[in-house]
Amino acid sequence: MNVTNLPLLQPKEKKKGSLLTFRLQHPYISLLCYALLLFTPLLTFLVLLRAHKCGVGLQDLSMSIDGNSQTLIPHWISKRAKSISPLTPETHARYDPVQHATIYVAIAAYRDPECRNTVLQVFEHAKYPDRIKVGIFTQDDLKTDQDCADFRDVLNCDAQDMDKYAFMFTRDDHDDDDDDATKNMSKIEKQKKAAARGRNLWQQRYRDTPHVLCGRLHQIKAQRVHWKDGLGPTYGRYRAELFYDEEEYYLQMDSHTAFTLNWDVILINMHLQLNNDYGVISTYPKPLQNPTLWHWTPIDASFSRDIYVICKTGVLVDKLTKSFKLSPANIIHNPGQPILTAFFAAGFSFQKGHRITNVPYDPYAAFVFDGEEMSMAVRMWTHGYDFYAPNADVAYHLYSPNDKKIRPVFWESDDWTKKKQWKITRYSEFRLNVIMGLHDLLHNFIPKTSIDLREMEKYGLGDKRDVAGFWTFTRIDINNLTELSPDLCPQYRNGGMAPFRIPWKNKTEDPYGPVLV
Description:
By secondary structure, the protein is α/β, with parallel strands linked by helices. It has 17 helices and 17 strands.
């Protein structure tokens, strides 16, 4: 191509007076431009001054890179937001189940003022709180009852200004030395003040550092219904289990439970010791010697000389049917390791997460309280699960002392009588007895067509063992149900039920092994 033949580009001639013409035609835009030029330095000065007061310097306006996600994060955020370590997957070369295994905690509550304190216990006393996920289903008076997930009076997440949270904490001994009011107190008043301070020692841990829940509220999920719309504890546990998301371990307990320090590590180590992937650590915990979980100073897990075990079950006789009610726990000498037992306690159990998948709680057992544990035990046992008593005190239960009512119960509500909810309970018990194969023995005069038998395959028995084997294993004579089943405590004292365990039908798939010493 002959470049000499290309036309030359000539610059256009500027039109004279174009800027003046624009200003005359658009006077308001011109005034706006002048105003911006005039006030921009002032606005810049005010922004920098505000940033200085908030503790944000020019260097904070730059960006940092999050080492975990390679995401750009402003410095003023990264300096104030607690960075939570990502969970280590099982496929990672450094995976250690004791440190990294996830735990799902299910809590079902009925108007329980200690529910929120139980959630605090779970996080405050865990060794590795990042791995904890909590699912809550509450049946409350949404206007008056303490919300199970309301932590506004404990969160102190602004690490740059901890002084503004001083009202949340009691004063320490050094402060009291200079307190004229304390010096003038009587001996009894000083003792009460000291006791109150002692109950608050654990909270002092967060006096100068953000609370453990700061940055972890996303690990808690909750659903709430009015207590008049609730359907009892068994249904509540079913709803709480719906939050499960394939966590490796599953902890089920009541909504008034206290925990020892590092409970998560201790329970995982104990479950590994079972040498049984289908093992369930379960018992009634020892009583909490404190009127409330609030500010309870935790202790180390106690491998005390005695443990609680459930040795027998009672039988409640109704004019239409019979249902099981486990007897209170008995005390035996600590054998030094978990022992195989016969019964499942709904108030405390620790197992692999697949138990929820394989044996979910039954949503059709409305208003069932007595009978919940035995029906779950039968279903779990036929699905291949075995029960073990823990050999350490990891949790404590806030029981009602001397039958004193410290929390509402659904069977004492007005609706229990007015709406005849007790009749619903009876038919729920009929359903559970059908599942356990006891219908013809206990109430064959009730037609099955009148019993809710929906989704019996999903919420029924398993195929790993026959239900008849469960009655043999627990020594319960279903043909002659009396007030109490035979006492298994002597066998527990001799090392547990391992010699009498019934294996799976397919022995090659049976995960059972002797407890590791």
